[in-house]
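Below is how a single chain appears once it has passed through the pipeline. First comes the sequence as given, then the structure the pipeline wrote out for it. We keep one example in the README because the format questions we get most often are answered faster by looking than by reading.
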Amino acid sequence: MAKEKAKRRILHTNVIVIGLGRFGSSLARELVRTGHEVLGVDTDEKLVQQMAQELTHTVRADCTDEAVLSELGIQEFDAAVVAIGADIEASILTTSLLLQLGVPNVWAKANSKSHGRILEQLGAHHVVFPEFEMGKRVAHMVSGESLDYVPIDNDFVMIKAIVPESFHNQNLADLKIRTNYEVTVVAVTKGDGKYAPAFPETVLESGDQIVVAGQVEPLNKFCRVI
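Resulting structure:
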């Protein structure tokens, strides 16, 4: 999960995404889809052209140059995402410059734990490990422990799981899941794809999908039970 220094929820309108590889381009598309104005930047002209019709603006530029960042009007952006791939030096230098220039929220992609520590030491507001996080998520799905696995913090996750036959036609109060397993069922869907909040009187049926939240170890034990 992203390691965050700024806990206050902030809505960003103008975002610059630096690095338009797989992670950066996917993130930039989603930001545009959700109503944000996005400037996509990369040193690779081919990547810039590929994204030109999908983002608000795109430009080929080297963001390790402070003068270039100033020309891009970096102070006008609400947030910046450093999504640079294999070039760790460029990632570190770009992140450092963005912080020096006063960008209020800087997100930086880390390729390794050591890279992440350096970004944190620089003062990046958020450091993300997309490959590591996706690897953990898929591993839990492949193992059959859950349908989905979403880390919320270092030791707190949410999973999506199928209600077993042993829970059929029982409500949450009777099952005492929180008491017995130290995890919480927060939502339930009956197969129509629409999740509803879970209450003590909510009756589970075999095959229902549930969203369960809790600390990693108790949740892993719960997954093995169901």
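The chain has two domains: 3-128, 134-225.

See the next section for the split statistics.
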